[in-house]
Description:
Shape: elongated
Largest sheet: 4 strands, mixed
Number of strands: 6
Mean pLDDT: 86
Order of helices and strands: HEHEEEEHHEH
Strand order of the largest sheet: 1-3-4-5
Distance between the termini: 52 Å
Helix content: 40-55%
Radius of gyration: 17 Å
Amino acid sequence: MTGEAANKGIAKVQHRIVSIDIDDQGIVRYHSDVERERAVAIFDLVEDNMFRPVGDYPGPYMLRLSSRDRQLIFDIRTQKDVPLCKVALPLSPFRKTIKDYFTVCESYYEAIRSAGLAQIEALDMGRRGLHNEGSECLMEMLSGRIEIDMVTARRLFTLLCVLHIRE
């Protein structure tokens, strides 16, 4: 392995989330579909992500994700649960995308039960498009504070949506 390849391998190990905790204290309960999406997003995120807070913060990282006072809070910690930094983002730029995403998801899950393939595929494309839109917005808003890739942004956006659900 060349020096450059070894450095990339080390960076991949260091600049990643190894555990994630979602502060969902305001949630009475999740619907089983939502709970499944949440579990899959967390599992997939821990398995494959690129997450690098700007600054001299050693990784890998534990992440506590919460929603407080109309802000999304990234509480970044070491593997030994030592606080490193917090990044807060306003939630308002995500509201319309999340609302539209939930509406399309509802229609999509309804269509799976009763609609034809063409309608299901159209709704799925809309759902994916809104998910990408929210993920790109997240990447832009984190720019200069936390470096993430699109795969990581998509999974974090799923968790952001989960934090928005109130029953």
